[in-house]
Structures are given as structure tokens and as C-alpha cells.
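CO-FOLDING WORKSHEET

Operator: S.A.
Ligand of interest: zinc ion
Run index: 295
Mode: holo prediction, single chain
Checklist:
[x] sequence pasted
[x] SMILES validated
[ ] output reviewed
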Amino acid sequence: MNRPATYLLLTLLLTACVIPSVRSEQSRLRSDSIPDGARRLMEAYPHDVVGYEDNMIIFADGERLIYNDGKSRTTEQMHIEQDVKDIFYQEYDTQRFPPDYGYDPGRYRSAAFFDKIYGRNEAEVISNLVKVAWCPSFGCDSLLFSRQAGAAEALKRVSDELEQHPELREWVIDAQTFCYRNVAGTNRRSPHSYGIAVDISVARSHYWRWSYPHASEYQRISYVNNISLDVVEIFEKHGFIWGGRWYHFDTMHFEYRPEINPPKYMQRVEPRKWETPSALRAIIENLNFDPWRSE
Ligand SMILES: [Zn+2]
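OUTPUT RECEIVED:
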């Protein structure tokens, strides 16, 4: 056999051996390489996020959203532009308390992701709002909350548990939820705009921008909190995060974020049949929320 023919034969043999092993490696990677964050989204939003493939998370309606855009950003940049992986920039660790410099777990949100889950504009979000009876035995008013992704269900569970603790009534009687607005001092939509955030006891709360009106994101500030940690514990048990765990503290603020703080136990209960309030627009216009602009 002449030399070129030998090379050709060797090449063919090598190709035959190598290509199948490369292929099997690729398929192994495909099934094993779902990033932890994407997996957590699939667990936390099982009816909405149904898969992951080729760096895209896949929604139940087939729509896809890029998971990792490959850009590295400062924390300040992450407030302006984010990809889905940025949601998981910091772990939500209740032991890391009070929060140290720059620790704001859950404060980085992917607008594209939350738009998709809860509504891309005010009309879409409002169409998903339901009335949740909020601690009725304490004499509280109902709250508007999103029925998407189990949010209203989680809030109802918080309410049910709070009612077992009459000593906590004073902290939760003046709760506020939906308000279509941006986060104070920013162009990004507040989680209150999605109907997934609750502010409690505003008068006794602390918000970093109120305490330090001239501070930048990078300035060192002093932590302060007066909110009862017993209340915090109940919210956190049901998939909410607390703004009091942030260096940029917002101690009145709770937000339904099961992907970074999964409910401590999954109750397999029949989802409630939510009542969609009539005259919703009138209810919303009567919410006097603006003086309390925060996260
Ligand atoms: Zn808030």
C-alpha cells in the first residue's frame, strides 16, 4: 500500500472510532449539563419552565429564553441588563445575617423571565391578579396577588400560618402588594409590578435609600432592622425572600421567589379556585402606594 493510501485508511479507521465516542459524549453532556439555575427554575416553576436545551430555558408554550448570554457584568450593570443566570448570582443564605457588604441575594432579577411568568405589561399582570384573604381573623383587608406560579397560593399559606400567631398581628395588618411601578431610583420594574411582593409594617421599616438618600450602590452603609424575625421565618418557609437579608436593606419587603428560596415543604394540595375581583381597576386606583416607593 502506498503512503497516501495508508494515511487515508488510518484516517477512516480513526474517524470510525472517534466520531461515535464524540457523539455519545455530546449526548451525555446534553443530559448532564443543565446548569443548576435552570434546574432550579424547572423545579420552582414546573408548569411554566419545562426544559433546557442549548443554553435556552424552554417554557410550556414552546417559547425559549437564553440562559447565559456569556457577558460578565458588575452588580450595578446587572440592575440594568441581566440574563437568566444572574438570578442566581448570590445564594439565599439565612445564616449570613446581618448581610455583609454587597450581599443582596435575589435582588438581581431577569426582567425577561419575570415578564414571561407574570405579565409583560400592566394589563397582562392585572389579568393574573386575584384577591387573597389576608389574615381575616386579624381584621385585615384582602390583598391582590398573582395567581401565576403558585404565588397567591403561597401568600395564602403565609396568611394561614400568621393567623396561628395573634402576637404577630401588629406586624402584618397594614400589608400592601400590587403597584405597577419601577424600583425607586431605577428604570427596572419592581416585583410589586408583577403582583409577587408584599410590604408590611411600612411605618416601622427601613429602606436603604430612605436612610441614605445620597448613597451609591457601592457606598458602605449601616444595617438596621426592627421587623420581627418570627414574621420573616413564616414568609421564608413558604418560598418568599426578605429584603432584610440584603445589604441594601428593604426590611418591609417580601417577594415570592421559589427558585432561590424553595418552600421548606411542598404541600400537595388542590390549588384554590381564585376569585378574580370585579371592578379591579377601581380597587387598584384606590391603592395609595406611591409614598412608599422602595424595592
Ligand atoms: Zn416592597
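REVIEW:
The chain has one domain: 76-285.
The radius of gyration is 23 Å.
[x] output reviewed
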